[in-house]
């Protein structure tokens, strides 16, 4: 059976530690109120916060809009000083901020530290970007004319982030938005408010120490009413929202109604194909982390494994052995690889999905049980593997929990069809040593996802490449590459340096 490590940590001990970390980061302790800051480690309450009122939201947007008027005129390489100082503060306080991520999101320390490192990495990327916000110069058809594009700051950017990456996704958006000359209003998940308090304090400190206006960043806290107010405000030029497809369906039309811009990062029901030529040892290691890491609570979690009939049995055997060795328990304990689900709703959703899969003819290979001993309000589960006879409705839905559905295929074309036959399109992978299969998977008629990998899992994206997906995943791109263009507006400029006034397309007028 899976080894379970259950530390006897009390909620009060965790609350004391969270308070100490906040103070160490220079954050002002939140005013007590109706918004609970809960830890999934014990299911208990760390602190409470006063949620933002709708008037608070309006005021925060107003401060960000006012700050934008001056911030947009600061040269981008000078704006980089704020992000550079933020990177330095994140580096100095990496372990403390990572601990807060563990306390609020339940991530094991290695994953929490990796998330903070991602923040540092995106800051470094954005600093370099500050000297590379390039526009193009195009040849004009008119003599004595020059045609070019320039990029300008967009305005106030509203960032709505999810609990599973409570700090990294905020940093992806904020570091680039600030470099681009935008100001930011952040609405974090109500599930992880303390990490937001910490990040907000570090950024405002970075701005002050870099000689910039701290009002370039605003923090609002609360539930859907707070998010709705942010989404509907015409002063918010771009809403970058990370969350469920359901959330995206609410956000997108509201922003569109006022003709604002949206950047959506929504659900992922990610698949991996394992071919007969695959290195099964390499594939198994990648699959276990992608499927069970963060207790299956990543948007890039591997949820569908499509293996060739010749290798599916030995591959599932390897995975089952690995799953039974995974240590499930308090993420603060040494050796634990799988921490808790975020809450009881996630556990209920997992159990319902497993029951539906079995009803549909699925065979539960292992996992799915709740691990007891951590309190009634803490939800630890063993990652599950289910062999499915077909890609049924439950397989085509994203359940935000550690369930890996296994499907068999006979023909590579059929494998690609199965892979693409879901509404989501975030991350994907193929395991093969056949170059033709690898290239086909990456071709236009291969994976239809925003991320397509070869011989590596679906999770663990680097910040250098643009992150995002297609179909119901939303179509947005954050982080690397040219994603900065989403945070700026483009102007096409024509300069006449001649003494004549020729018209385009050879038109003669008068």
TrEMBL record:
This protein's record includes keyword Lyase: no
Family matches, as InterPro entries: Ald_DH/histidinol_DH, Ald_DH_C, Ald_DH_N, Aldehyde_DH_dom, ALDH7A1-like
Keywords annotated in UniProt: NAD, Oxidoreductase
Aldehyde dehydrogenase domain sequence ranges: 35-490
Keyword Ribosomal protein: no
Protein name: Aldehyde dehydrogenase family protein
């Amino acid at each position: 059976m899976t080894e379970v490590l259950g530390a006897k940590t009390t909620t009060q001990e965790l609350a004391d530690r969270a308070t100490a970390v906040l103070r160490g980061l220079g954050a002002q302790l939140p005013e007590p109120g109706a918004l609970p800051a809960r830890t999934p480690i014990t299911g208990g309450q760390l602190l409470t916060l006063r949620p933002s009122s709708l008037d608070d939201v309006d005021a925060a947007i107003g401060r960000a809009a006012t700050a934008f008027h001056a911030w947009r005129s600061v040269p981008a390489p000078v704006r980089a000083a704020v992000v550079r100082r933020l990177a330095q503060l994140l580096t100095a306080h990496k372990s403390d901020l990572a601990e807060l991520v563990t306390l609020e999101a339940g991530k094991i320390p290695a994953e929490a530290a990796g998330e903070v490192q991602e923040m540092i990495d995106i800051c470094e990327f954005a600093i370099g970007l500050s000297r590379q916000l390039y526009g193009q110069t195009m040849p004009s058809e008119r003599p004595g004319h020059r045609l070019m594009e320039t990029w300008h700051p967009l305005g106030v950017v509203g960032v709505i982030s999810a609990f599973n990456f409570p700090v990294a996704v905020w940093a992806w958006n904020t570091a680039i938005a600030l470099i681009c000359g935008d100001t930011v209003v952040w609405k974090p998940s109500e599930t992880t408010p303390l990490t937001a308090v910490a990040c907000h304090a570090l950024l405002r400190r970075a701005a002050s120490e870099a000689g910039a206006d701290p009002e370039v960043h605003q923090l609002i806290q609360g539930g859907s009413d707070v998010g709705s107010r942010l989404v509907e405000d015409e002063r918010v030029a771009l809403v970058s929202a990370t969350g469920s497809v359901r959330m995206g369906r609410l956000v997108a039309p509201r922003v569109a109604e006022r003709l604002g811009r949206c950047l959506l990062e929504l659900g992922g029901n990610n698949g991996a194909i394992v071919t007969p030529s695959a290195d099964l040892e390499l594939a198994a290691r990648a699959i276990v982390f992608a499927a069970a890491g963060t207790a299956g609570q990543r948007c890039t979690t591997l949820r569908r494994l499509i293996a060739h009939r010749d290798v599916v049995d030995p591959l599932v055997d390897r995975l089952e052995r690995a799953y039974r060795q995974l240590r499930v328990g308090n993420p603060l304990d040494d050796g634990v690889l799988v921490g808790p689900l975020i809450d009881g709703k996630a556990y209920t959703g997992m159990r319902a999905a497993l029951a539906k899969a079995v009803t549909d003819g699925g065979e539960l290979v292992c996992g799915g049980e709740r691990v007891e001993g951590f309190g009634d309000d803490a939800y630890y589960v063993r990652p599950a593997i289910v062999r499915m006879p077909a890609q049924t409705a439950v397989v085509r839905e994203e359940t935000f929990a550690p369930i890996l559905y296994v499907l068999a295929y006979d023909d590579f074309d059929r494998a690609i069809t199965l892979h693409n036959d879901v509404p989501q399109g975030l991350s994907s992978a193929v395991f093969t040593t056949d170059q033709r299969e690898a290239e086909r998977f990456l071709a236009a008629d291969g994976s239809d996802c925003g991320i397509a990998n070869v011989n590596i899992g679906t999770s663990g994206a680097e910040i250098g490449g643009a992150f995002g997906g297609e179909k119901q995943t939303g179509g947005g791109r954050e982080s690397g590459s040219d994603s900065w263009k989403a945070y700026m507006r483009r102007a096409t400029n024509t300069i006449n340096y001649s003494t004549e006034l020729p018209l385009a397309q050879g038109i003669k007028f008068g």
